[in-house]
Amino acid sequence: MTTARRTQALVLRAFDFAESSQILHLLTEDEGRIHGIAKGARRISGAFHGGVDALHMGEALVYPRRPGAELRTLGGFSTATHFPGLRESVVRFHVASHMLALLLAFTREEAPDPFVFELGVAALRLCEAADDVQCEGLGLGFESMMLRHAGFFPELTRCVACGKPARNVHTAGLSPLKGGLICRDCGTEDSSAPRVTGETVETLAKLGEGPLAAALNLPTSNALRRELRATLDAWTTTVLDRPMRTSKFL
Fewer CB atoms near the end CB (10 Å): N or C, the chain? Predict the structure, then answer.
């Protein structure tokens, strides 16, 4: 049999399959996002120690894809942590679930991306140790950094219609369809673009640049956070051409 490879992996999704097996979606350090079958995973005495679940992090044993096969074969999983602190708070758990959904949506099968792997693991570790308010900020920061890394972050330095630099913004349109800010004079370019405040524009730019830990100190203004959440929801929905179901719990 072809030699299996061990790699650090984060479980993004897990489904029971047949009587004792599971289908796992993993974000791995060496091979990017993969999905495969873990035969007999739910057997207590097996190589998966009774099965794994989303948010488990550890070492996976992964076999190469066989010609014509849709699923990889997974030979085992040794859990190092399941981030127990994330389950001690509803807010933390929902933010972490949204992070996993974003990792699924913005990664490609078998396309290694060390930055995304490290960012995802760091985000979960920071969330586990944060209070609920800090965790909400981390969720906004993580989504912003994922959008920037994927090349879908909004243009915030100029009007995307006329090119006029954005200086001392009080309010402006932020159009997912056009790709960024729309000044007052160009409002007809996308009359449905939501209006955002200058504080939201400035904060969103900082969140996208990182570092992720800076999101722990996001201002606690409820109005700002609501506007950031609505902006990111609209942006991600447009990019993916579908809403993120996990965002409705945030």
Answer: N
- Residue 3 DSSP code: P
Q: List pLDDT tens digits, range 179-201.
A: 999 998 998 999 889 999 999 99
Q: Which two tokens stand for residue 199?
A: 């504080």
Is residue 61 a contact partner of residue 28, using CB atoms and an 8 Å limit?
no
pLDDT digits (tens, 9 = 90+) for 78-106: 999 999 999 999 999 999 999 999 999 99
CA dihedral 41, 45, 49, 53 (to 10 degrees): 40
Q: Judge residue 210's burial from the number of C-beta atoms within 10 Å of its C-beta, 0-12 exposed, 13-18 middle, 19 or more buried.
A: middle
Do the beta carbons of residue 22 and residue 54 sit within 8 Å? no
Q: What is the pLDDT of residues 147-165, one digit of tens each?
A: 999 999 999 999 999 999 9
CA 144 to centroid of chain Cα atoms: 9
Cβ-contact 2, 19 below 8 angstroms: no
What distance in Å separates the CA atoms of residue 136 and residue 107, rounded to the nearest whole number? 22
Residues for the chain: how many in total? 250
Q: How far apart are CA 4 and CA 19, in angstroms?
A: 24
* Residue 77 φ then ψ, to 5°: -150, 125
C-beta atoms surrounding 241 within 10 Å: 6
- Each residue's pLDDT tens digit, 38-48: 999 899 888 88
Residues 48, 38 contacting (CB under 8 angstroms): yes
**CB-CB contact of 219 with 182 (8 Å):** no
With beta carbons less than 8 A apart as the criterion, state whether 34 and 111 touch: no
